[in-house]
Structures are given as C-alpha cells and as structure tokens.
Design brief:
The protein is α+β, with helices and mostly antiparallel strands. It has one domain: Muramoyl-pentapeptide Carboxypeptidase, domain 2 (2-Layer Sandwich), CATH 3.30.1380. 33% of the residues lie in helices and 12% in strands. The radius of gyration is 17 Å and the shape is globular.
C-alpha cells in the first residue's frame, strides 16, 4: 500500500480550483460524536466533536449524494473534515509520541514512517488541510456506530482489507466504501474511515492532477 507522504503522492501536480470551504452539518443523516449513542467509556474519551466541519463545495455535494444513496436506516458519523495546520500538527505529534511510547525500540526514522501512515506531517503534505478529505463511520438507525472490526487506531486492523474481519464487519466497510466511491471519493487503504476527493491521493488513484491545494491561513 502507498502512504500519503510517499514520493509518488507528493509528486502529483495540483492546481487549486478556488472552491470555498462550506459547513457540512446541514447535510441530512450526518451526526457528530455528541449526537450518537456511545456505550463504551473508552470510546467516549476519544470522541470529541470536530471544531471545523467544513469541506470544499463540490466535496460537500458529493457527500450529500452519497448519503442520499445509503441503504435505508443508515447514517454517517463525522469524525473529521477540514483541519487547519495547527490542528493537523497537533494530531501528527500526538500520534508520533504515542507510537514512540508503544515501540521504544524503533529508531526515530521508523517511528516517523509509521506515524505518517495514519497522521500526516503538515510540513510535508496533509489531505485534511486541503478541505478534500473526510473521516467518517457508518451508523445504524438508532445512531449506534456499526461494528467494522476496529476503532480508530494505528494498527493493521485499521487497514481496509484487514484479514481478521468477519462477514458482517466486511459488509459494513463495503457499504461505506461503495457508496462513497460511486460519487468519486477514494479510500486511503491504511484507514478504513478516510476518504477524499480532489487532493493529491485522489489524483494519484485517478491518474489526474489534484484540484485542491493546501489551504493557507
């Protein structure tokens, strides 16, 4: 699998089309963590509402169509959409330190390499800063997050094609993936929850130039 910070991704040409960021919380059947049922105390600790629920205009419309095409009874949990530089850097550093504590035997270069698979370095490139990337999950009709075999962590079980999934878990992942891919999104295979449109990873997968560059404040 190819990491977002791999050279072939970074080499994708980009010409920003100038679309604005727009709020996505007015979309139907999309919910923040504070609006869903979370019975696991450990999960609750890791479920803050995003402070920046924004995407580029065309990405929002594609997400709207994807939500409209979900099978009856399903909804979407919004974890993250746009992140500014400060938020992304904080996430990157926290992930780096977490992996450093977990694998103290690894050299700094290897920890960095593992970190950017799951939390990209904004000084290099980060899809979330473009406004074209979104982290989400599938909900049932009662706003419970459906079991896809893993919580949002930096482990092999986060990989979309993880071998240890049962039939139901695989089905839920595929429902989300198929619905979003029908609208032109691409999945980042290291993270079952991460989809994007218009960024460099999307451009690499689609064989096109990216249309969303890093947004500078």
């Amino acid at each position: 699998m190819i990491s977002i910070n791999d050279k072939c991704i970074l080499d994708v040409k980009v010409k920003d089309n100038g679309e604005e960021l727009v709020n996505i919380l007015d979309l139907p059947k999309i919910y923040l963590p504070s609006q869903i049922v979370i019975e696991d105390d450990e999960k609750k600790k890791d479920m803050d509402d995003t402070k920046t629920p924004y995407l580029r205009e065309a990405v929002k419309e594609k997400l709207r169509k994807a939500i409209d095409n979900l099978p009856n009874g399903y909804g979407i949990l919004l974890r993250e959409a746009y992140r500014d530089y400060v938020v992304q850097m904080d996430w990157f550093l926290k992930t780096y330190l977490k992996l450093h504590r977990k694998y103290p035997e690894l050299k700094k270069e290897e920890i960095y390499k593992q970190t950017v698979k799951y939390a990209t370095d904004p000084d290099v490139y980060s899809p979330h800063i473009t406004g074209g990337a979104i982290d989400l999950a599938l909900l049932d009709k009662d706003r419970h997050m459906l079991d896809v075999g893993q919580w949002i962590e930096e482990e092999k079980s986060a990989h979309f094609n993880y071998d240890g999934l049962n039939k139901e878990q695989r089905e839920y992942r595929n429902i989300l993936k198929n619905t979003l891919e029908d609208q032109g999104f691409v999945n980042y295979p290291y993270e079952w929850w991460h989809y994007s449109y218009g960024d460099k990873y999307w451009g690499y997968v689609k064989g096109k130039d990216a249309i969303y560059d890093t947004l500078r404040e």
